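Following up on my earlier thread - several people asked me to post the actual chain instead of describing it. Fair enough. Here it is, all 340 residues.
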Amino acid sequence: MALISKKKIPFAISPKLRSYLVQFGREQKIPLKYEDLLRYNSKISLYDKNGDDTLWETVYYPQSDMEEIYENLKAIYADLKTDGDEAVIKHLVVDRVDVCTYANTLPFRIKIINKVNDNGDYFYIKKADASRIYGLELEHLLSPNAISYITHENTLVEEHIVGITGDLFMQKHLKSENLNPIRLSKEFVKFNERCFVRLLGDMHSSNFVVIAIPDFEDFQYRIRAIDFDQQSFEGSKSVYMPQYFKQNNPLVQLGMKYMTPESVKQYQIEERSLIAGRMKAEKVKLDHLLDCMKADVICIEENLVKLRKDLAKHYHNKEFLECKNMGEVVELSLKMVNLH
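Reply from S.P.:
Thanks for posting it. Predicted structure:
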């Protein structure tokens, strides 16, 4: 069973990481900071269409602030989605601003409506945390999923990742007659491998989404991480393997029912090969990012010591014991994709 040892602590963006973000177009000046969204004067609980509490709260701003805040939010959305095309802004309205008060970092979620077609979309504004940015960037470089985000000083803006959260998918769709259990199990194995190789932790069922994609004769599945706070922070190897979270047991049991150990091994090798290919394609960015990580402090010492030991034992490789920081651990973990 995977257990999170202690509350994740935030890490500031280092000058070297900031330089990376500027160089590769992630750092952009935006007209609003995270702290500006804290100026609300009231809030109410947000319920879903079934009347269940979503644990988000909709916030309201003083009339004197609201127009400016909403205009700035529309401009930020345009920066995120259309590279700042101002022609888009006139078609947008801010429908709602929500805050997640049960999360440690109090993220804001903004709902945007396009007046042309009444289509809704979301994006998020959060306090920038180095761990999360490393997680987002590694996801963008090494997974099959492109990630859109921008930073400005201590503010982080993220796109909304569409999909059904893992817990909801397991509750409502695992027994569907349209489910293809073998393809879903295969994707969970591959997702597990992606998380472990790049050391993205805490992928229990609320922190990833499942996307069902209709194919010409059946469904394909993609599992995507939606929370990147636990990038390379924890000390236990099992925290980086979604298979060890009890919340994910229905998917684990599905795999045990429909797959053989040989097919699991085949899919693990297949995913590692794909990651190796992405590493070659993104070598320049990845080398820069790992240099930033190796110069950074993104975990506590006791976690580093434990993870080194766990990975040295897992891979039968004593080089892990020589790693001086978490960046070196991630770098060596990535190097192992060609060896296992």
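The chain has a mean pLDDT of 93. That should answer part of your original question.
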